[in-house]
Predict the structure.
Amino acid sequence: VRNKHGLIAIVDDDESVREALKALMRSMGLAAEAFSGGEEFLRSPDLGRTACLVADINMPGMSGIDLHRHVSALSQSIPTILITAYPNDTARARALSAGVVAYLVKPFSEDDLLSFIRTALARPGDGGSAS
Amino acid sequence: MMGSLTPDRWREPPVILRYVLPVLSVAAAAVLVNFTGVRLAVTPSFICAVILSAWFGGMGPGLFATALSVVAIEYYFVPPIGSLAIKPALISGIILFSLAALFVAWLSATQRKTAKSLSRIGDELAAKIHDLEGSNKALKAEIAERMRIETSLRASEARLSALVGSTDEIVYEFDADGKYLNVWAKDEELLIWPRDQLIGRGLGDILTEDAAQHGREVIRRVLASGEAESFEVSRPLKGKSRWFRGRISSIPPADESRRTVCCVMREITERKRGEQFLAAQYEVTRILADSETLESAAPDLLRAIGVNLQWDWGALWNADRDGLRLCCQAVWRARDFDSETFDVATRELGLMPGRGVVTEVWENAAPVWMADVATESNFVRGPAAAAVGLHGGVAFPIVLAEQGLGVVEFFCREPRQRDEEQLGRLSSIGSQIGQFIKRKRAEQAVRKSEEEWRELFEHHPAMYFLIDPGGAVLTANAFGAAQLGYSVAELVGRPVIDVFVEEDREYVKGDIGRCLENIGQPFSWEARKQRKDGSVLWVREHAKAVQRPEGILVLVVCEDITERKRNEDALRQSEMLLAEAQRISHTGSFALRAATREAIWSAEMFRIFGWNRTTRPTLELFLERVHPDDRASVRSLLERAWKEGRAWDHKHRLLMPDGSVKHLQASGHPVRNQAGELEFFGAVMDITDAVAAEEELYRLRTELAHVNRVMTLGELTASIAHEINQPLTAVVTDAGAAVRWLDGQSPDLAEARQALARIQKNGNRAADVIQHIRALAKKSPVQMSQVDLNEIVQSVVAVTGNEIERHRIALRTELDAGLPPIRADRVQLQQVVLNLIMNAIEAMAEGEPRDLLVSSGQKTPHKVAVSVVDTGAGLAPQNLDRLFEPFYTTKDGGMGMGLAICRSILETHGGRLSARAHEPRGAIFEFELPIEEVEPAEP
């Protein structure tokens, strides 16, 4: 996993989780940006160079799933990993059917997350070519 | 010559003249004496004057002349002359003269009287002689006249003889007893007996006794009254009946004892026959004209022909119904003819073709004359005819179109020569009867058809009116009149407009006017008519003006559409009701034909979908409004339903042009129409408000659930999980990051330190969460207020309604309306009731019955209680003690906190919660609360 693969965008309303994930990405040598909500991310100039999106499902305002839908509708879709503290089979099925790379329940192991991020970045034709 | 004066010419002069005469004669004597101067002539002169006066005047004038003479002599001739004085010497002379004069006067008067008498007698004699001469002349004239009359009479007699001899008339002279005195006849053939034998015989010798008697009576009558009588009589002469017309008049009697009558007779057989034929023909015609059927006409026909043509018996035969045989329809006989046996023989006879004269006539449609039936071999009733003495006969057919319909036959008691003229006449009568039958048949057909039409017209359940151009009713059918409550007679002549209600009259007038302007063109309109009793009916009228020979008529056919109008009104009303109901309930309805996709939408449907009503409803119109998210599913659902003819019922949304969203509950079900086509009927209900209310309820429930979430296990778990998982996630992630910073050849200690610092922070945060949850559970601040326990129960029951229904639980609430208010934390008590009800619902998840009773009541003056009774699994007695301990649970996945928290809530309110078993199954949970205000105790 190298930097040239582009930005990892982290969207979570919980600052601790946000910071921790950003730190983890950095420790892996990946470029990461954290956003407190979906709207903020969509407005950000980083949207175009995002190679992978890690988003919390349960957020005030736009939910992680909504965010994923929006991103999917863009001309260049971004592989998404959804994380949640409220595991729910229905939500899980919906998320997977909506085409997310992974659905992870908090707390999750860093290895799981990293392996899914690698999978996401390796997806051919997906947003990784932005840089 | 006085004596020759006739009394006629001599008339006594009037008295005045008789006395003038003496004056004049005396004066003349005086003048004569005076002028002549002859004194000696005095006396004779005056004597002459006296004689003259007495002769012509009589005695009186004679005396008067004497006196005048004395005076005249004394005055003129006796001295003193010129004076009346008398010298006494002369008196004797005067007296002498006077006496002489008197004597002369008397003499003269007497002589004259005698002469007068003689003259009268002479006159009378002359008159007598004159009379005698006149009588003699008259006598001579009379004698001459008589001689002339005698000559004339003789000439007249000769002329009469000549006349009688030159005419066809027969002249008889009868005496008062009816004896033939004289007979004159040019043609003796016309006499019953030869002339010579007739004269001297009586009527009784020649005629039948009846005829002779009748003749004698007539003669007597004529002689008695002197007035002539006329008669007609028929005489059989040489086998032929001959008719005569006679006139009997009395002959002026030459000898009073020998009075006679003259009878002049003339043969009128030809004329009579013509008359009889005419009479028969006329009567036949009249009878046929007056009769309805041949059956009713037959007796009269037979009589008319029989009487007029001198037959004695007649019968009419008619073909029976199937036309195979003839039956005797009627029989007639002359008044004086007893034909009983022949009548019976005839009536009993049913004539088949090929048998007898009658059938022969029928078959050949040609008449037959029988001079004498006794010689007719083909005559079936020969013996019967002979028995009653019938001989001559005729039979002629009733013919129509050269086909015999029946036969008429006549017989008479004497043989009768074939009479071609009569045969011809009877044949024509036969044709006439045939025509009658034809006409009757036609009339019957026409009448039948007319009756049928009349029947139809009168009783066909449509009203017919015939109107003249002025608008007056000419006729109406009975049904039409009855519909209006009138009789036909009451309507005829009335303006038709009268039967319409006031408000409709103007335009009906206009419509009739249009009919009249467009002859032959039908028009129709609807209007209200008013019955006689004032009630109103709606009619639809079809009218047409027609040109008839008698003028223009308007025919109006009219049907009662009151029922239809009523139905229309009812329909309109129910449509309005439906529209109103749809509007109020926000429900639109539709019908849709699957094959053609034709659709009908109700007004509310258009309103719900926000389309103009003039828009043609289509599926596309429908789908266009469906929310884009729902469109595909709705389309496929509908397509499937239509294809498979299935009902549907689902909810979806509409996105209106203004961006608003409507929620619909739409359903439809298939129906096969009469033509077998698939149609769908359905309703669309705008449930936006309901959905909003539901959402609001959901929101409220969520809110309540949120408050409750620390109480209920799942929520608590989730909440705790989330609150704790967040810091945990951060911790785990940061730890991973720290490990990585520390790994490798050049560990980044600064980054690692930062990560560890965050781990510390998040660890504390997790601890805070636990602390917070505990506080939420145990130390949430209570908000005491005055609350109504019943209201709290009802609010929870409302919230749990869905769950109760979903589990098919029968809920009963028995709330004491007199429950006093208490002071409590409303939300916390709601949590308690909710918990108990939810527990009860869960306890009844399996098994029957599922009855839930929630009741409230005042237990003591100071306590109120609420109990929740279920018929669920119940409580094990050994577990009752542990029921309220925290973390005790009998449910899979339960945390065992609910009842513990409930008890703690109640305890903070100074109340208590208890549980016991419910017989035969289930559990009772009951909590009590004090009525007095209680300060919540610190737990």
User: Anything to note?
Assistant: Residues 65 and 106 of chain A are 16 Å apart (CA to CA). The helical segments of chain A are 15-27, 38-43, 64-73, 89-97, 110-122. The first helix of chain A runs from residue 15 to 27. Chain A has five helices and five strands.
